[in-house]
Amino acid sequence: MSNSRIAAIDVGNDALKANFGKLEHSLYIPNVVARDMEDRPVIGIEELDEKDPLDNLHIRVHSPALQENNAIYRVGNLATKTTNSTELDPGSYKSEEDQTLIMLFASLALDTVSGKDAKSSKNNVIDANYTLGTGLPLREVKEGKDVGYRSQLLGSVHQVEFLVTPKYQGMKVNIKFDEVKVYPEGFAAYVNLVMDNDLNIINKELIDKQILIQDIGGLSTDIAVIRNRNVDDDKAQGFNLGVSESLEMIRDEILTKHGVELDSRRDVVDIITRKNDRHHIMVKGSRTNVHDITDRILLELAKKQYRYLRNVWQKNSQSEICYFVGGGSAVLKEYIKTLNNRLDGFNIDFFEDENESIWMMANAYYKLISDYIRKNTKEPKKQEQKAASSK
């Protein structure tokens, strides 16, 4: 595993968050892709090279894991500017969508070409080896979908070719995985709560408590029940409801009422969570309050999420606290707190730092995959020592 680079990637429904190497490189890419039927027209290359690759990610992806092989895509910020961009649909399985893999491969290829080895590539082709830690929603892991997802990644070489992308145009990256670990998202959140990056225990008081973790994503919600330092698989529940549908409703209503078309769900999240001018948009140059739209739709969703919490807590009455994590929790935080104060008064907690909540999964996968590598590089040495001492 010595030549293998660590990748810890959370393909969130809102955005991909990834940590690489010794945490010296991380990426945040909105989870939006657009199929390109033909190559993009090339702007003057000199002009192109001054632009940010992250804003102009244009790639061809070749992989036997994809249903549509060898297709050309605009990814992330570039995709949000097109009319045919797609975000993951409610009800879809993350493990079965081409979009999840396209985002994953794009981030790995970007990490590779931005590294020092890219300079020494032959014929603009770079071979990259990764040890990957990633995750899937609890309900997908419970249904065993992690097995197929992992084997699709492990068994093949996946190629990303940069087309009209600044700095990297014409480069190809062949991605191979030495190992892939797919973790249930709820457990990952727990790991992040109790361990630091060097895998030292930081929250001793949490270790032996029974706690709930409600992870609200774009398309799904997982409630993990942690007891005896493990996810109780029988008690844990996954629900087919996240914030995406509500964000789409807000987007549609803003268009109908104010005639303003927002590029993507990401823009709606920004309007709801930003520090200044929350719940305001610009309409023909005037600051306009959209509180009536956002409040009504988000309160409805918060009530459903609260019902999930209540049902799981009733079945696990000895739970001491529930932590809300994930991008959806940042969006619904104020609404859920208000409901809880008015109704049951459960012991619940949110992460005040929204950034911490959003990066929680990627950081957890990093800790888990680092731990896996550490254990597996030490073991052979121990075995060698044993063999030597028994002679």
Report the uncertain regions. Answer: none
| CATH fold call of the domain at 5-184 and 365-380 | Nucleotidyltransferase, domain 5
Quaternary assembly: single chain
* Spatial gap, N to C terminus: 28 Å
Using the 3D structure, state the CATH architecture of the domain at 5-184 and 365-380. 2-Layer Sandwich
Strand order of the largest sheet: 3-2-1-7-9-8-5-6-4
| Structural classification | alpha+beta
CATH top level assignment of the domain at 5-184 and 365-380: Alpha Beta
**Radius of gyration, CA atoms, in whole angstroms:** 22 Å
Task: Report the mean per-residue pLDDT as an integer.
Answer: 88
- The secondary-structure element order is EEEEHEEHHEHHEEHHEEEEHHEEHEHEH
The main sheet comes to: 9 strands, mixed
- What is the number of strand segments? 17
Tell me roughly what share of residues is in helical segments: 25-40%
Give me the number of helical elements.
12
Describe this structure in words.
The chain has 391 residues and is α+β, with helices and mostly antiparallel strands. The protein has a domain of 196 residues: Nucleotidyltransferase, domain 5 (2-Layer Sandwich). It contains twelve helices and 17 strands. It has a nine-stranded mixed β-sheet with strand order 3-2-1-7-9-8-5-6-4. Strands 10, 11, 12, 13, 16 and 17 form a six-stranded mixed β-sheet that branches. Strands 14-15 form a two-stranded antiparallel ribbon. α8 packs antiparallel against α10 and α10 packs across α11. It is globular, with a radius of gyration of 22 Å. It starts with a strand and ends with a helix.
